[in-house]
Amino acid sequence: MPHTAIADQPDESHHPTKFIWKYIWSQDHKVIAIQYAVTAIFVGLVALVLSGLMRLQLGFPNSFSFIDPSAYIQFVTMHGMIMVIYLLTALFLGGFGNYLIPLMIGARDMVFPFLNMLSYWVYLLSVIVLLASFFVPGGPTGAGWTLYPPQAILQGTPGADWGILLMLLSLAIFIVAFTMGGLNYVTTVLQARAEGMTLMRMPLSIWGIFVATILGLLAFPALLVSAIMMIFDKVIGTSFFMPALVSMGEQLDYAGGSPILFQHLFWFFGHPEVYIVALPAFGMVSDVIATHARKNIFGYRQMVWAIVAIGGLSFIVWAHHMYVSGMNPYFGFFFATTTLIIAVPTAIKVYNWVLTLWKGNIHLTTAMLFAIGFIFTFTHGGLTGLFLGNVVVDLPLSDTYFVVAHFHMVMGVSPIMVLFAAIYHWFPKITGKHLHKGLGNAHFWVTFLGTYAVYLPMHYLGFLGVPRRYYAIGDSTFIPDSAQSLNASITVAALIVGIAQLIFIYNLIHSLRKGEPAGANPWGATTLEWQTEHTPPRHGNWGAKLPVVYRWAYDYSVPNAKDDFIPQNVTDADVVMVDSPLTTSSDDSPESIDLGPGALS
Amino acid sequence: MSLLKALAEKPWLPQTAGADFAPVPGPLPSNPGRTALKFFIAVASVIFFLLTITFLSRTQYPDFQALAGEPWQPFSNTSQLWLNSAILLLASITLRWGVMASRQQNLGQITVALFAASLFSALFLFAQFAVWQQLYSLGYFVNSNPANSYFYLFTGIHGLHLLGGLLALARCIVQFAIGRDCAQLNKGLLLCRSYWDFLLLVWLFLFFLLTLSSASYRAIAVLCGF
Q: DSSP character for B114?
């Protein structure tokens, strides 16, 4: 099998010239990354619109005739599944994983470029199959994003004929795509690192993506297995998950299956999935914070160990999603304990981000704003997780808006904050242009404050006992009327946040065409992707010779060094030193940090 | 360098202070195919592991009727399954022969070995299909009992994995037919051999698992705490 991608022979890695080979059927990891990103962002916008429709119904019930209870629960289902799988997983791993891995470890491409290309096209197929369910009789499935049987495949649930089948099929196709991509990512990290790039010299972004990919490879099979078994139950009439039941007055042919079994399988995937999304975010935000605070990341080894520990522990906490499922109560004790344990490495990471900022030379770029915003949202979301991880607290709060607020803060808003930070941070490398800072800051403040306006009140609704997934609160004795006015205000905030994303889209398109040229290394970053010969990097990434790595990824503000960053590929001999420490670290004029490759020699 | 030692590196120290962890000069020794295969085998193992767990749990439900254990049950006589196992074993052995022949660059042996390996693998799939047909003709439909459902599901997924392996083998053969590069063929066949060995082990495990009696399932379930 030819591996032109990793051989240091650029002549052999033929450069495609025709448009179709260069941009459509491309095997270049950067093009594939952009294909992944554009598709994921598109489908994410669909899910955003769905959430707007849901909020319209909740905020102003009975005002919109086209949103009936079936449509509402279909929006809930599709919004959840699209956001978790088809946006976050695909954008973090397919998008940023693809773009960053070869560049950050000093490789020319992924080790299996063809498989990488195939991964994207299969992913696109899964998206098309999923979106097709909007156009089939009965519409998409309304089973809730967790697709719990038996109701997921029974008549009476919206989309029980075609929608659920297309959903399960789409998930299976997605998993095939992810496996092809994932095998590429882990193999590339393990086998194609540049000379001198030891595992512990890798930037934390790569550590996060690497461990998350391993989690994905081991966790997605659980979803695949449950999807296949549910397809069997639906199409062939087996009883893997389906108990004997009467539906609409009719005794069905199912007998003896276990719906709880599905929940175990689903959450054996579902909980690692939280970290499949979170670990790349942890890694990328670490790099953004270190770069824009001009300071080495605090506790690098702890950060790596925490990523690995969280990865391992994430496989033994799944049943904290199932305290009310009727499983053996003794399980609750075990899973509450493991849930508390996994909070320890997670907390270490939060402390280390804050300690990295401590006395750093913080540059409040848009990327940094989003990164700091992430620390806030993630801490809030994480702390409510400790509430829900304990059985006695979870029981009354289960299936209320408290849960909705918790998981949106911790795995909705937080990873998306990092995605925005990452896009603002790496856009100059991807396109050679800066995003507009004013628009970016406006985007940040509306998004950050807006999400708090949306999700903080939701915690309160949860305390009141407002149940999630309900089309309308209706008349109830225990929920005061004021809950409805809170709901209306949440809807207004959510719509403002949703519309504010248009600023971001406009900024992307505007800056792509008319953005300020960024140069090779606008942030003065140390990692390899900023040291390429060309910006944006060309096919093969590195020109004639692969880089050699001489140091870790966080040599910022090294005492006595002339510049406040030393790229990973600069030898000790090439570092310009001065006699006494300079105070240049506070000099943030563009001239002082906009150093391209070779500027130190 | 072991993983634990690698993770103990203090990369912020100057190289002289961290000399124990000094990177090996030159590019990494690289065998991406082998690494990817290891991960793929891990992925496939998780699939079969999870199915096994759910299966063992399902065996303890009252409607479960094992496929073996009593004389009237279809796998009280497992001769057909033994035959299928022998066919898959032959496929594995002939692949090993192919690896040796490609190392020795013996074109004649390569041809025969590759032909035999492909033939035995395809034959195994047909033989498994024949077992399905037999079960079907005896009235053991996919949906008539969870034991049947699992049998079809397990063997179907195992067969799909072998089919995928056959595609990879076909790719090796086509590349060899075009390039006549024995070294490249050897590299590809080494991967195929490992994969076939894995699938043979999985099949033997499934054979064992799916032909136990109800009493044996009960014993295993008690041991596993179901």
A: H
